[in-house]
Write a structure and sequence with these properties.
The structure holds two protein chains of two kinds. In chain A, about 30% of the residues lie in helices and about 20% in strands. Chain A is of the alpha/beta class. Chain A has a domain at about 50-150: 2-Layer Sandwich (Nucleotidyltransferase, domain 5), CATH 3.30.420. Chain B is elongated, with a radius of gyration of 28 Å. Classes of the chains: A alpha/beta, B alpha/beta. Strand 2 (about 55) of chain A pairs antiparallel with strand 1 of chain B. Chain B: One of its GO terms (molecular function) is transmembrane transporter activity.
């Protein structure tokens, strides 16, 4: 009988003092994994869908180039423009930009520079081919056509 | 006075700490955009050297699978008009695996393939000689939409990845996610590709009608 009495002594409330720690751990996880966008994108970006996506192993080798219709059409016109880093540029400046990006990489990786082309769906092939010609000129021949996964319908 | 002080609880109430942390957590959850570096990899041809023009390659017409896309996003596949790209991946697969006139090496390659792939070889003399010779050529117009181009390119890649994956007995998705981070993965990738180069040629877009 005495055994039953003992039970009533246990406290019924769950200790919640460790809860903030758990939440903080979650918070730190998200803070660490977050990549804040350090640049403003000045062109429209509706990324097309594809199925055969590949992921690159080394993210440091990727440089991004954005192509699309400028968001501010009053200032930049409605023709597709190229954006790299935080400013719009002409296709003729791409070689220079690629060389700058390549110089920022460690010596051993320079040949492996990959350009991720984030191109808006509505852009025509003309401007893209112009950009690719410049990339060939700059000898940055690995290109990644950025796209998002497509749900396959059966 | 002194007595009333001692009655006060000594510890700080930490119960609302969780709420504060939750608020911060939700803020980060909402503002986070996880950067995605996924896409379709392509390697551009080297730049043209005016002193050293590329050698003229006379490939037989039967070894080239031509896909033309015009400014209206219509397709012309091997001389046949079609409105959409459905089923193109299967056709490319059959074209690559045709083995119309294999030489000695190609015959050895053919014998090394699993039975399911060997069964797809039609040995049509009008189609590609063997996978080493087969080239898929995609030609666009300057007015072709990027979306259509990517769709066609995607399907061409899919055809090759299907073949590679079937060869090493994997799912296409599984094969594609191999990154070659260790030797076993690298060996698997090489085994899939061996003898069947991914020959997708992207021609310069023409300027007519743009």
């Amino acid at each position: 009988m005495a055994k039953f009495k003992k039970k009533t002594k246990t406290s019924e409330s769950i200790p919640t003092s460790a809860l903030p720690d758990i939440i903080f751990m979650l918070l730190f996880f998200f803070m660490v994994t977050t990549v804040l966008r350090e640049q403003e994108i000045l062109v429209e970006q509706k990324i097309p869908q594809a199925t055969q996506l590949q992921k690159l192993q080394k993210k440091t080798l990727i440089s991004y180039i954005y192509i699309g219709k400028p968001k501010n059409t009053a200032l930049y016109g409605s023709e597709p423009r190229v954006q790299a880093n935080d400013a719009l540029m002409n296709t003729t400046d791409i070689v220079q930009w690629v060389n700058r990006e390549r110089d920022a990489l460690p010596e051993a990786d320079r040949g492996m520079i990959t350009i991720s082309m984030k191109v808006d769906k509505d852009v025509k092939m003309g401007p893209i081919s112009d950009v690719q010609t410049e990339l060939r000129e700059a000898d940055a021949r690995r290109v990644l056509y950025a796209s998002v996964g497509k749900v396959v319908r059966n | 006075m002194a007595k009333s002080k001692s009655r006060m609880s000594q510890e700080v109430n930490a119960g609302s700490m969780a709420d504060i942390a939750f608020l911060l957590l939700i803020f980060f959850l909402v503002t986070t955009t996880i950067a995605s570096d996924k896409g379709i990899l392509n390697v551009l041809p080297p730049k043209l050297d005016p002193n050293n023009p590329p050698p003229e390659i006379d490939k037989n017409e039967r070894n080239i699978f031509t896909i033309l896309v015009n400014a209206n996003d219509d397709l012309l596949v091997e001389g046949e008009y079609r409105e959409n790209a459905d089923g193109l991946d299967e056709e490319i697969k059959l074209f690559v695996l045709n083995f119309g006139a294999p030489d000695e090496d190609a015959q050895a390659l053919f014998n090394s393939l699993p039975a399911s792939l060997r069964a797809q070889a039609k040995r049509d003399p009008e189609s590609s000689d063997h996978p080493g010779e087969a080239v898929v050529s995609i030609k666009t117009n300057r007015g072709t939409s990027y979306e259509k181009f990517l769709e066609v390119f995607d399907l061409a890649k899919k055809a090759y990845f299907d073949i590679y994956a079937e060869r090493v007995n994997l799912d296409t998705d599984e094969y594609r996610t191999l990154t070659g981070k260790d030797e076993a993965e690298e060996a698997l990738i090489d085994k899939g590709k061996e003898g069947i180069p991914m020959a997708i040629s992207i021609a310069e877009p023409d300027k007519i009608g743009s």
